[in-house]
């Protein structure tokens, strides 16, 4: 085994020790084809009011602009599939938000991974990214051989489905690069497309983000949700898992073992009345370390009223 191969294997072992259940390595390069797709997507305004999606375009498609001298892009997957789920008769929370905010959990692990890599490889220039920075993490996961991008826009791993977070570590290390995932195992399946309540999943693996329930319940800051969405949200209070729940590949999902992702006590059984009675102060206290804080309590109440209302909420 060469020195490069040995270092690459040691990095993957370190990732596993930190709780990442898959790790792949790709050669740092400009993602030209993905750049074209992203530009077309933005031009069609599929990002809605998420203006940050249009920022730093060059950084998104070229890792060398994020880490000068970058040679390798390490992609890591962390499972969040829960062993217990909510009852069907309560306002629904996307499973990724049952526990602590994954940004903080994974960022800590990425920093630890980079620290350990520097211990064995010396002065390494690298940066870790978790969803909140201009990185096309699903494209890099594909380039790292971890899976394919499904019709619902999620990365799908043949042995684990799609209920996982994706983290990226860009470094100037010369590592052994995995072969990009070339297959597409969605086939003729249309379950996610047909099941999407708001028709946000289009053909050719295109997602109209501005029509997604997650967009309306998390990203949209206006206090009125468009009336033409009335009756389409079901019981989704925060986020939406419909396209993942119906995906046949998620039959391979297994419960995670990350303590930080365990459900916040009481969350799974919270009724509409419980949410209404919570109050601003208790919400902040209970969800201080939760992804739900992103919507704020007023946003949660807006969403709750919207899914409870039978008539249009706005013109």
From TrEMBL:
The keyword Cytoplasm applies. It is an enzyme of class 1 (oxidoreductase). This is Epoxyqueuosine reductase. InterPro entries: 4Fe4S_Fe-S-bd, 4Fe4S_Fe_S_CS, QueG, QueG_DUF1730. [4Fe-4S] cluster 1 binds at residues 186, 189, 192, 247. Its EC number is 1.17.99.6. Its main location: cytoplasm. The keyword Transit peptide does not apply. Its cofactor is cob(II)alamin; [4Fe-4S] cluster. It comes from the Bacteria. It comes from Flavihumibacter stibioxidans. [4Fe-4S] cluster 2 binds at residues 196, 212, 240, 243. Binds 2 [4Fe-4S] clusters per monomer. Cob(II)alamin binds at residues 60, 131, 152, 155, 166, 214, 240-241. Pathway: tRNA modification; tRNA-queuosine biosynthesis. It is found in: Cytoplasm. Residues 177-206 form the 4Fe-4S ferredoxin-type domain.
């Amino acid at each position: 085994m060469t020195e490069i191969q040995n270092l690459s294997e040691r990095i993957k072992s370190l990732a596993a020790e930190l709780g990442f259940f898959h790790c792949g390595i790709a050669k740092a390069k400009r993602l030209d084809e993905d750049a074209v797709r992203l530009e077309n997507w933005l031009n069609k305004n599929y990002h809605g009011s998420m203006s940050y999606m249009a920022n730093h375009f060059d950084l998104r498609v070229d890792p060398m602009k994020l880490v000068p001298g970058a040679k390798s892009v390490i992609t890591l997957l962390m499972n969040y599939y829960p062993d217990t789920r909510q009852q069907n008769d309560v306002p629904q929370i996307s499973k990724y938000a049952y526990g602590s905010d994954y940004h903080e959990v994974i960022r800590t692990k990425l920093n630890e991974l980079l620290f350990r890599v520097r211990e064995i490889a010396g002065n390494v220039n690298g940066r870790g990214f978790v969803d909140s920075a201009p990185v096309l993490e699903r494209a890099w996961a594909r380039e790292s051989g971890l899976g394919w991008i499904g019709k619902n826009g999620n990365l799908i791993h043949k042995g684990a489905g799609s209920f996982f977070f994706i983290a990226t570590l860009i470094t100037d290390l010369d590592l052994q690069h995995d072969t990009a995932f070339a297959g597409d195992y969605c086939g003729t399946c249309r379950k996610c497309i047909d099941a999407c309540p708001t028709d946000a999943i289009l053909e050719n693996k295109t997602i109209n983000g501005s029509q997604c329930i997650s967009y309306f319940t998390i990203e949209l800051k206006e206090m009125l949700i468009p009336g033409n969405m009335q009756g389409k949200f079901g019981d989704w209070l925060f986020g939406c898992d419909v396209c993942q729940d119906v995906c046949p590949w998620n039959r391979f999902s297994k419960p995670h073992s990350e303590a930080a992702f365990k459900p916040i006590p009481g969350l799974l059984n919270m009724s509409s009345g419980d949410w209404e009675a919570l109050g601003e102060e208790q919400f902040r206290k209970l969800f201080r370390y939760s992804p739900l804080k992103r919507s704020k309590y007023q946003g949660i109440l807006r969403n709750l009223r919207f899914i409870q209302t039978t008539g249009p909420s706005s013109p």
